[in-house]
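Predict the 3D structure for this chain.
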Amino acid sequence: MPLVKGCRLYIHDKGYASNWGWLGLLSIWGLSVLLLFPTKRTKFSSEESLAKDSINHPFNKLNIPEILLYWFIGFPSLILTIVGLFCLVNNINFVEIIKNANFNTVISVIAWVLSGLFLFLELRRFGFDLRKFGIFNLGILKQKNNLKLIIFIVIIEYAFAWGFYSLNLYYISFIFPDYVENHINESYFTNVIGIIFWSFSAIVCAPLLEELICRGIILQKWAMKWGIKAGIVTSSLLFALYHLRFDIVPLFIAGTLFCVVYFKTGNLIVPIICHSLYNSIVTISMIAHYYSISNGEFISINDYQASMEPLLGQKAIVAAISFAVIMVFLYRNFPKQDDILPYYRNAK
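Done. Predicted structure below.
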């Protein structure tokens, strides 16, 4: 019942009759439907204090929990429901479909595209000027300093992630051997079509939307609320946790680097390119791994541990050196507490 009560209050706040909130009885599916109701509000609570100048402060109109619910629950639940109904009508095994790697890849692309379109429309409705995020400022890439910065960030982050991830996975293999064995033999695609969709999702969709949401919106919203340092730490932590993987530390470091790069350049296109290039390297390695296991090469946990042991030293050295370089970079470039947010810096 608390969920129903919350849904009734939520839908009423969006400008609809509170009775629609009874959809909360359907749990996640009901909430997903309510999330997709277009907001009828024309006045936001923040406008009471900002008065006529509220249009100049669109971040005050943003509801971060609502955005996260759209992202994590709304669109995925809607898509899975449609797929489930399709399977039911056509007498197809839903579980088998969900387990199919290519299907999951295609669904992820559809979810990215739908959520991206919805997000862009919402930002425009809140009064954001997308140009002020610096997404479309491709001219900045012509500057040699920015190109060097992008290459540096991608190399140093990948070096740290490669070393730390390998060490982390190796030691986890002694605690959860079955999980690691499945992980190292897992493939996220089963044919060329799957590779194409996965590459598009990882190299185009994810960098664009994750940077817009995590750095463009959440970072700046929380920086306004709690300060720049807290905004960077909390948004980077959210970025790491939402991936639901055990390599939280490299993801947190990557998120922090992308935040600092955004403040340093004032253009979101720079961390987007960094993110995309990093994912490109990861995708290439995954494709190579796919073709190795598709040729019948199964790696047992014992073989994996034996092959890793001679490499532990060099991976530890790479992780340590790259981490030290990252810390120096962050120390020299970390934004000050009174720095202007990139969005408002671009407004000048």
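The chain has a mean pLDDT of 84.
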